[in-house]
Design brief:
Elements lengths: L1 E4 L9 H5 L4 E3 L6 E3 L9 H10 L5 E4 L2
Antiparallel strand pairs: 1-4, 2-3
C-alpha cells in the first residue's frame, strides 16, 4: 500500500497523527501533517484506514495494490 498526503488541503487538525503516529506527524511551525512513511507495513493498515476516514479535509488517500 502507498499513502498519499495532499499537504495544501491539510487543516492541521492532528487526527491522522492520533490515529497513525508511526505514519504521520505534524510540522512544528504550522501543524500541517507530514508523511513519515509512504509505504507502511501491513500491520499499520487499520490505523492508516482510520486516519483516511477521520481526516476532516480529506487530504489523505490510501492506494492499495
Amino acid at each position: 500500500m502507498r499513502v498519499e498526503l495532499d499537504e495544501p488541503k491539510c487543516v492541521a487538525s492532528g487526527q491522522c497523527v492520533m490515529a497513525a503516529p508511526d505514519v504521520f506527524d505534524q510540522r512544528d511551525d504550522d501543524g500541517v501533517a507530514i508523511l513519515l512513511e509512504e509505504h507502511p507495513g501491513e500491520e499499520l493498515l487499520d490505523e492508516v484506514r482510520e486516519a483516511v476516514a477521520i481526516c476532516p479535509a480529506a487530504a489523505i488517500r490510501l492506494v492499495e495494490r
